[in-house]
C-alpha cells in the first residue's frame, strides 16, 4: 500500500513538473513573440518602413525598405531579381520566417517598385548598385554580427559582388538561383535549356530574337508555356501566385534590358561578360548556394559554388525551378531557415 501511494505521488509530481514546463515553454514563446514583434524605432511608427536616402553620381535618391520582425542576431536583407522587379515576390517568406523569429527586410533597389526611378540608364551599373547596398546597410544599422544578405537571380549577382568588397560587414550570404558567370549561364541556356524545347518553337523564338522583334506578342506567347512555365516557375502561368505576378508586372524594362538584355536566353546587356568564378575563394563568410533541378541556372554550377567559397553549403531543390521559393517551397524555406539558425549561433 505504501509503495502504491509512493507511485501515485511520483506520478503526480511528474505531471505537475510537466505542466510547469509546458507553462514555462508557453510563457517563453509568448516572450519571444513579444520581443520579435516589438517596434524599437523612435518617433512616428511606420510599420517597419524606412526610406533611405542614397548618394549616386547623379545626385541623391530615395530607396524603400520595410523591416518585418525584430531579431538582434539575424537580420536578412532581400535583393530581388529581374533586374528591375520588386521585393513583392518575396512575400511568400512571411509564411515561414516570422514563425521562426527571423527578422527580414524588404528592399526595392533604385529604379524598382516603391523606390525612386531616375530614368537614367547610366545608373544601371553593378558597381553603383554595390555601393547602394552598402549605404542601405549603414542606414539600417546592420553589422557583422547579424547582417545576412540574400540575393535571388540578378540579386545573386549583386549580393556576391557586394560580398567580395564588403564581407567584413556581413554575417552570412545566400546566393539563390544565380550562376557566378554570365558566360557559363549563356552556355547552359544554349546547350541545355534550348535543346529541351520543341525545335519548331525554338526556331520561331530565335527568328524573333534575330530580328530584334521583341515587342512581337508572339514572343511571349511562345516563351510563357515553353520556357517560363518549365524553368521560371513550374506552374501554368494562369496559376502563378499573385505576389509573383504583381512583382513582374512592375518590372522596370529600362533597367532589365540595360543589364540583362532583351533575350531570355542568356545575358547580353552590361552583364554579358560578368564572371567572378575565380574570385569565389575570397568569400569567407558562411555562404548558402541554392540551386534547382529545372532552373534556368545549372544546378551543378550552383553546387560547385559551395565548394569554391571558403565556408559553403549547398541546398538542392529537386522539384524547383528559378522561383523555387514557390515551386519547391518546403525544401527552399526549410533549408534557408536551417542555414540562418545554424550560422547565427
TrEMBL record:
Coiled coil segments of this chain: none
Database matches in InterPro entries: AB_hydrolase_1 (IPR000073), AB_hydrolase_fold (IPR029058), AB_hydrolase_sf (IPR050266), Peptidase_S33 (IPR002410), Pro_imino_pep (IPR005945)
Domain AB hydrolase-1: 76-328
Keyword Membrane applies: no
Pfam families: Abhydrolase_1
Stretch forming the signal peptide: 1-21
A GO molecular-function descriptor: hydrolase activity
Record carries keyword Hydrolase: yes
Keyword entries, A-Z: Hydrolase, Signal
Top-rank lineage group of the source organism: Bacteria
Gene3D superfamilies xref list: alpha/beta hydrolase
Family stated for the protein in its record: Belongs to the peptidase S33 family.
Record's protein name: Proline iminopeptidase-family hydrolase
Organism of this sequence: Flavobacterium artemisiae
Organism placement in taxonomy: Bacteria, Pseudomonadati, Bacteroidota, Flavobacteriia, Flavobacteriales
Amino acid at each position: 500500500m505504501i509503495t502504491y501511494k509512493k507511485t501515485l505521488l511520483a506520478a503526480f509530481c511528474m505531471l505537475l513538473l510537466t505542466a510547469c514546463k509546458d507553462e514555462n515553454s508557453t510563457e517563453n514563446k509568448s516572450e519571444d513573440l513579444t520581443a520579435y514583434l516589438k517596434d524599437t524605432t523612435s518617433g512616428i511608427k511606420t510599420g517597419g518602413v524606412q526610406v533611405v536616402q542614397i548618394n549616386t553620381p547623379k545626385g541623391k535618391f530615395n530607396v524603400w525598405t520595410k523591416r518585418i520582425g525584430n531579431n538582434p542576431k539575424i537580420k536578412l536583407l532581400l535583393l530581388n531579381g529581374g533586374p528591375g522587379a520588386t521585393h513583392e515576390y518575396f512575400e511568400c517568406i512571411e509564411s515561414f520566417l516570422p514563425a521562426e523569429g527571423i527578422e527580414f527586410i524588404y528592399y526595392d533597389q533604385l529604379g524598382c517598385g516603391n523606390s525612386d526611378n531616375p530614368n537614367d540608364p547610366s545608373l544601371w551599373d553593378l558597381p553603383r548598385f554595390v555601393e547602394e547596398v552598402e549605404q542601405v546597410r549603414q542606414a539600417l544599422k546592420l553589422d557583422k554580427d547579424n547582417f545576412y544578405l540574400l540575393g535571388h537571380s540578378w540579386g545573386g549577382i549583386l549580393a556576391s559582388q557586394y560580398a567580395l568588397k564588403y564581407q567584413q560587414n556581413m554575417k552570412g550570404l545566400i546566393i539563390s538561383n544565380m550562376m557566378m558567370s554570365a558566360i557559363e549561364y549563356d552556355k547552359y541556356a544554349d546547350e541545355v535549356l534550348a535543346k529541351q524545347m520543341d525545335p519548331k518553337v525554338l526556331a520561331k523564338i530565335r527568328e524573333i530574337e534575330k530580328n530584334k522583334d521583341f515587342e512581337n506578342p508572339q514572343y511571349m506567347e511562345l516563351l510563357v508555356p515553353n520556357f517560363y512555365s518549365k524553368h521560371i516557375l513550374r506552374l501554368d502561368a494562369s496559376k502563378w501566385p499573385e505576389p509573383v505576378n504583381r512583382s513582374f508586372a512592375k518590372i522596370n524594362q529600362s533597367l532589365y534590358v540595360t543589364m540583362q538584355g532583351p533575350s531570355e536566353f542568356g545575358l547580353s546587356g552590361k552583364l554579358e561578360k560578368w564572371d567572378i568564378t575565380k574570385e569565389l575563394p575570397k568569400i569567407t563568410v558562411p555562404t548558402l548556394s541554392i540551386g534547382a533541378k529545372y532552373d534556368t541556372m545549372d544546378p551543378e554550377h550552383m553546387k560547385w559554388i559551395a565548394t569554391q567559397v571558403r565556408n559553403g553549403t549547398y541546398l538542392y531543390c529537386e522539384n524547383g525551378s528559378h522561383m523555387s521559393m514557390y515551386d519547391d517551397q518546403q525544401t527552399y524555406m526549410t533549408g534557408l531557415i536551417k542555414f540562418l539558425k545554424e550560422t547565427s549561433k
